[in-house]
Amino acid sequence: MAVGFLIWELMVLQERVRQMERRIERRMLRDVQNPFDLPHNEFMHIFRISPDLAMELTNLLRPDLIRQRSTGISPEIQTLITIQFYAHGSYQRPTGDQFNFNVSQPVVSRCLHAVTTLINQHLLRRWVQFPMTREARQEARTKFRNAPQPFEGAIGAIDCTFINILGPTEHEEAFVNHHGNHSLNVQAIVDPDMRLLNINSRWPGARNDSFIWTNSPIRRAMKFHYDMGERRTWLIGDSGYPLEPWLMTPLPQYRAGTRQFQYTIDLCKARNVIERFFGCFKGMWRCLSYQRVLMYDPTFAGHIVNACAVLHNMRLHYRLPADDFYVENEVNVDMPIQDVGQAENEIRQGPRAIAQRIQDQIMRERYGYVPEVNLDPN
To answer: Span of the secretion signal (predicted)?
Structure first.
């Protein structure tokens, strides 16, 4: 019995020695290999950002990332570990085993949570800003008016996308989307340059786009500015959103040759920027890809989405190329035919009636030359 106990203690001691040796080996490898020594193109491929941007981001977070222990991981490595996880969407252990890092899975987890939380706390509101002042909205309208696919009066294109997550233990059914996957339904608003104006990642996948918009602070802001007299400013969305005086949507099912059809074509072309944004966003930060699943609770998964949104806007600010990671999403503009009389008999009460009058005014001003087509055979 005593011999068996001594053998067990010896095995435990040997395991502790191996762990200490592994820690020393990893520390030596980290000291020898500096990720910032990588060639620029290789650094960009691995981390999706330039060394200069990585260093700026690290400096912004440095005061909260400095470890007390002298052997603690440097803020630079903590930041790069997190960014590489965003970029490739791998599991934590393979991320830590990269030759640049050589850290354990628990260390990767701590780095990921620390850096993601700090980005949300200190950088989200700074880098993702909706135009709230009159001057900012005027600038946004000018940008959409001069865009390759213009839509005058618009300040942003809005849509939602699913981000797959691990099924939570509480209210699991609320996160099952119509594809049968557990997900968040993330609302985004972008300008013609694909710069994020707003990101809302707090809603579960079972909530539809219209519900999220109705409960959005941005809707309240748009309504406030409308009530204050700002009449020719709106967002553009697809048919999943309600028509409102501050949100223009398509008029589907009209035949080619009508002003309604031309209006819808122009709106869909301008709104296509949000589809291209989602393709670029998920292609750049593969942890958000449809083929990946964020293995975290919904709150932290939403924080990861927000952090990737910050990095997306920082990349645009630094004019970093995105061609290698871009995924084209086409918009289907083929629309079945609808009787004009049916559209004219829609509900005409409250904000919707005002919005319909705004739509009519837009079409008269821009497409007055387009003849109306009566689809009634009688």
So the answer is: none
